[in-house]
Every structure is written in C-alpha cells, then in structure tokens.
Amino acid sequence: MANDKKNINENKPKFSPYWIYGILIALFLGFQLFSSSTSQDGSATTPSQFFKYLEDGDVAKVDIIKNTRVAKVYLTSEAEAKEIHKKSKPTSFLPSATELPNYKFEFGDLQNFENQLNEVAKDLPNKPIIKFDTETDNWGNLLMSILPFILLIGVWIFIMRRMSGGAGGGAGGQIFNIGKSKAKLFDQNTEVKTTFKDVAGLEGAKEEVQEIVDFLKFPEKYTSLGGKIPKGALLVGPPGTGKTLLARAVAGEAKVPFFSLSGSDFVEMFVGVGASRVRDLFKQAKEKSPSIIFIDEIDAIGRARGKNAMSGSNDERENTLNQLLTEMDGFGTNTNVIVLAATNRADILDTALMRAGRFDRQIYVDLPDVRERQEIFEVHLRPLKKDKDLDLDFLSKQTPGFSGADIANVCNEAALIAARNGKKSVDKQDFLDAVDRIIGGLEKKNKIITPSEKRAVAFHEAGHAVVSWMLEHAAPLVKVTIVPRGRSLGAAWYLPEERLIVHPEQMLDEMCAALGGRAAEKVIFNKISTGALSDLEKVTKQARAMVTIYGLSDKIGNLTYYDSSGQNEYGFTKPYSEQTAELIDKEISDIIETQYKRAIKLLEDNRDKLTELAEVLLEKEVIFKDNLELIFGKRAFEKEDIEN
After folding, report:
1. Residue 288's CB: how many other CB atoms inside 10 A?
2. Do 210 and 70 share a structural domain?
3. Which residues bind ATP (predicted)?
4. Domain extent at residue 81
5. CA proximity to 320, closest of 295, 343, 337, 344
C-alpha cells in the first residue's frame, strides 16, 4: 500500500515554480501589448489641423463620439503614404477586427462642429464618411482596463490552490522551493580543476583529508579491518590559510558527489526554512552516497546555544542548529556521507557539534612556516613571467606571518607593479615593493609634509633602527623609510625570527625597540608627539599579554586569565578582584616605562650615530641594513642563519 502511494506521488506531475513565474511574466507582457494596441486611438491633433487635412482630401472617414466630444480621423491610403502622415498610423502587435484611427482630437459644441464639417466637405470631390457613435466606446475602454486585474486575480487563485493541494505536511516555507537546499553540487560531470597538487604546505591537513577521499573511493580497504570512517571533519584556522582551498581540492580529487554551501545559506527570514534546508541537504546527500557535504563558515549557524540572553528556545538559528545536530548523528555509518566544515572561530561553536560522532576530527590549518611559504610561492608563481634569478628562499623569509591568501596577493601585486613599470618579467624588487604595498599601504610621495615634520619623522624612524640594532633579541632590520604609506608617515621594516616559544627577554627587547621612536624624539627635541600611537598600542598589548596571559610577571606570579574556550572575554565581570586589577595596571605601566627609559639610555649613549643615521635618512628617504653597518659596524650577536 505504501509503495502504491509512493508510485502515485512519483507519477503525479510536478508543478514547477518557474512555470508560474513564466506565466505571470507572459500575462503581464501580453496585457501591456494588448492594452497598448487596443487603447491606441491615433495621434493627437487639433481641429484646425483636421480641417486642413480635410481640405487637402486626405480624410476618408470621421467617427464622432457625441457624449465625449472626441473625433477619430481615418486617412485615405494615398494620404498615409505622405511624409507628414507616416508617424500617425498606430502599430498593433495583436490582430484587430477594427481599423485603428490615424488621428483623434476633441471639439467644442457639437452643432457648430457639425455645421463647419458639412460646410468644408460639400465642396470636396470625394466626400468623407461621417459617422456618429454613442457611449459604447466608454464601455469598451472600461472593460479593457479591468480585464487584466480580473485575469491576474484568477491566475493567483489557481496558483494558491495548486500549492495548498501539493504542500502536504510541509510548512509554508516550501512554497516556491524556499525550503530547498542551496548547496552547489560537484560531481564527475562537473569540471573542478583544483587538486591536492595546488595545495602547497598543509601536509598534516592534506594527509587527513586524503584519507577521507581514499575511504570514499576504496571503502573496503578500511571496513575489512572493522574500521569506521569519521562522520565529520572540522577545518580550523586563521583566515586565508587555505581551508576552503583544501575543500575544493577534495571536490576535485574525490570523484564523488560533493555538496558545497555556506553556513549563511541556511539562514532565512521565514520560520522553519533553515531546518528544512538542512533536511533537504542531507536527503540529497544520502540519495547520492557515497558523498561529501562541505559547509563553509559553519559558525554562522553553529554558534553555542544559550549564550545570548535575548534568544529563547524558538530562535530560528538554534532550530537550524538542532536540525543539523540531529542529521549528523541520525544517519548510520554505512551511508558513506561525510561532513566537512570550515571556520576560523572554533571557540564559539556549540559543544554538541564538536563531540565525537559528529565532528570526530578537528584539522588545524595554521599559518605556514618558512618552508611552507616557499612551496606556496612556487604554486602562485607558476602563471607569472618571473625573472630567472628570482630567489624563492629570499621571498619566503621576507614574508613572516603571511597566510596563503597573503602570498597569492603578493604575487599578484608584484605582477601588477612590474606591468605598471613596463617590465617584461617580475623581478625581486617588484616583490619587495608588493610586500611594502600590502603591509604599509599605498606609497604617497606627493603628500604635503613640512620640513620640521619630516625631520621629526626621520629621527623617530632612526630611533627604531638604532635601538633594534643595539639589542640582541630585537628583530633584524631590513630597511627604514620616511616615504608616507597609507596612514603612516614613515616605517621601519624588520625580519622577525619565527619562534615556537618566546622568552621574557625577547619580548622586552622587542618592546624597547618599539619605543625607540618616541625615545629618539625625547632625546633630540626634548618633546614627544602623537606619532608613536601604533608603537604604544603594540607595547601595551605585549605587556598586558606578559602579565595576564603568559604569567611572566613576578608581582602577579604564575597566573593566567586567558580562557581558551572563549567563554569569558571580560564582559560584565572580570576574573580577578579590583585590587588585582590595580596591581595588573601598575605592573603593565612599570614594564613599559622601564623599557622606555632603557631606550632613552641607549640613544643618549649613541646620540652622534643617531643624528648621522637620521641625516642619511633625510637625504635618501630609504635606507637599508648596509647603511647601519657603515655607521655602527656589524652586530656582534647577529645570528648567521638569518639572511635578508
């Protein structure tokens, strides 16, 4: 019996909403054309012009509507061929049983108009046909004006009856397929060119997802030993590290149906639509199993429930999440449907979503190290016409902290800079300019700056360079410039050492170097300016991290107020008392002031060299490591493994 009902439903013709849209558009256009053609009563003219046409023998017939005092003029075929009347004939897209008039006009008193008409027409060799009509014309116009509305109302009633009859138990969101999944399907018939060869670095993450692809292709390899493939894998990492790229590579390698969509695709203004789309997505995936579902930016619907006091159990986003939790834990392990998801905010995801049986694996996609950056450069340099002597090792060392997306942007910007300068290939300098452009902003050589401001900027940047050169653990200098970029009037570029752990003396040296600019202003001009805003922001964050996160303060001790789960971000209540807050503030201030005084002492001891370096900077506007070596000599503690 159930099968018979199923067959009946399957054989029932489906009424697609696109047919509805087509019918409505066709009716609308048809009404427009029909009304324009039937209501067109010829070009407007005046009685004086009409009598002139009448005297010339151009008029074949005149219809006089007595109650509206409107006259419709029909010309002879010879007159219609004249140049003056060519635009008077109305066009009709629909066949019409009656001939359309050429002109129409309004007249005054009927008796006077009739007398004048007879007076002119009596001397004509070919007298026109004069016909008097009553108010039937008004009824025709009224009918044509209300007919479109009657038809539209009838079509709408028909559509609503069809929809209400075929909706079954589905909610109102099923109307016009609004509850259907918006996932884009990639399969063997879809050309997806991205493969694992296009994903440089990320070796650990690639190994994890390759195993998932291998299971879908050869499941017996794993099931023969009693193993079960994970139901879900969550890609976690900073923005631009290649999470979505890795998913695209899975789509290109898997050769199985791959459903891709964003977490925001589930969100809709109608109640119940998000849950309906989740159900439809998993229904399609099960029908095409083995298959993969990829949900990008899953934090749009996977945010932890109950954190917002204003949202209750009927919150639409929570309903969508509840349906997703049910679907992920509802299908059996033998359905071969695997869920991949990506987010850079795993700390805010609901714990029920992260448990084993849903997202069994968390694959962390971190920022690339120097070796991985070199591999990423190799991928993005393939389509470029690069210089033969381009050193990839040099480029990878010049871009610490860059993500894969940043490196792609560097390669593109370098190509644009080379093309702008009329070069035939992209060389080393183009890449350095591209890095400067991305980090510092657009160069503004024509920015208006007074000589005194320029001198202050030069000593400020020279102070950074001198202090960093004198400290053992400060980052090695690459170049110093006083050419304005973006919102900054100058900049000192460093090549930081990539460390896995950081010691207190390393953090203190970096803070001292950052305060070298303000210290130079104090030493040379005996006054300070607002130019150190970004430096103060940086050192304040570092000092606060030393005290409240890493437990590197002797006064606070081995305590941390950092919560890796993201549950407490110092909202309404702080995890420490007011006395501790005062102690933390004082400790942060002491650390910063100590390093500031240390920077002033270093610059006072090397005042002559600071002035010499600033004068060179004012002359050249851009100086490099070589200029500092000429003034200070080589750093005695410089590490051999760091090359610029």
Report:
1. 16
2. no
3. 237-244
4. 34-142
5. 295
Euclidean distance between CA atoms 247 and 245, whole angstroms: 5
The answer on whether 240 is annotated among ligand-binding residues is yes
Beta strand 129-133 with 258-262 is unpaired
Q: Which residues are catalytic?
A: 461
What is the dihedral sign for C-alpha 23, 26, 31, 34?
negative
Torsion of CA 51, 54, 59, 60, to 10 degrees: 120
Residue whose token pair is 């381009």: 390
Looking at the structure of the chain, the number of domains it has is 4
The whole-angstrom separation of Cα 364 and Cα 163 is 47
Q: How many CB atoms lie within 10 A of CB 174?
A: 19
Measured CA distances, 437 to 81, 253, 430, 625 (Å): 70, 36, 10, 20
Determine if residue 241 is labeled as part of a ligand binding site. Answer: yes
Tokens at 405, concatenated: 């997306």
Could you tell me if residue 500 is inside a domain? Answer: yes
Q: Is 460 annotated in some ligand binding site? A: yes
368 is in an annotated binding site: no
Domain boundary among 398, 421, 440: 440
